[in-house]
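thread: overnight batch results

M.L. [08:02]
morning all. the overnight job finished for the chain we discussed friday. pasting input first so we're all looking at the same thing
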Amino acid sequence: MQRNDLEQNQPFEERADNPPRANKLKKVVEHKNFQTLIIGLILLNGLIVIAGTYSTGYTNLLNGMDRVLVWIFFVEMVLKMAAFGLRGYFKQKWNIFDFIIVTASVALYTMPFVSVMRILRVLRLLRMISVVPALRKIIDSLMKSIPALTGILGLTILIFTIYAIIGTTYFSDVLPDEYFGSFHASLFTLTQVVTFESWASQVARPIINEIPWAWIYFESFIVIGALVILNLVVAVILNYLEQEDDNLRDQQLADIAEENRVLRKEIKEIKQLILDQQKK
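M.L. [08:03]
and the structure it wrote out:
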């Protein structure tokens, strides 16, 4: 068997063209305890952000702890770059997200923009998504479902437009202008109705008392807007989550099949070598 073929089928940590130091770093950054430590530090970052919203006498302490966390995250990023290489690091989109957050935190930390720094502290909490696989899976599924959700969004806009025009036409004289006095006011009112926020006592019942058939308007809108469309969105997202599981399982099966193929090939070549030795 040729050396190149062997190297191509070996895992990253066993390939000869990878420096031993990079292999060790890869084991460190992918270790369960290392990931747990990073998750704990991100949670600590969240507690510091929360504590900073209160007027306390520990502002300097909190700022100092935040500065330490920023540099710890920076060191983590450098370790991953050294472990995977720049190409391997930036090949993963979540690493690009981490790179933007961490480098922005380091670059802007010395600048006198307090509000910007507070936003960056909050945004660092989003790194939890890139660290926890379950959260990454959900976000990836949501991103993949956007094209399918676009059609549902178009249907939602169409339904809201029709009902807003009907509401503005028939109910503008019943309630104050802030509810159905204009098209955009009607849209906002329908958003309140579809979220079930005081829609019966504040919106629906006063109109029904004046216009008895208005119950058909509200009941149909609730059924279509809140139940049908919401369930469509949930169904699409769940479908993509299931597809993500299927893709992962297929990838695992493909990896196992490839490993079996390589093993069979190696065994065959070893047998051939043994036969050649016996013939000699």
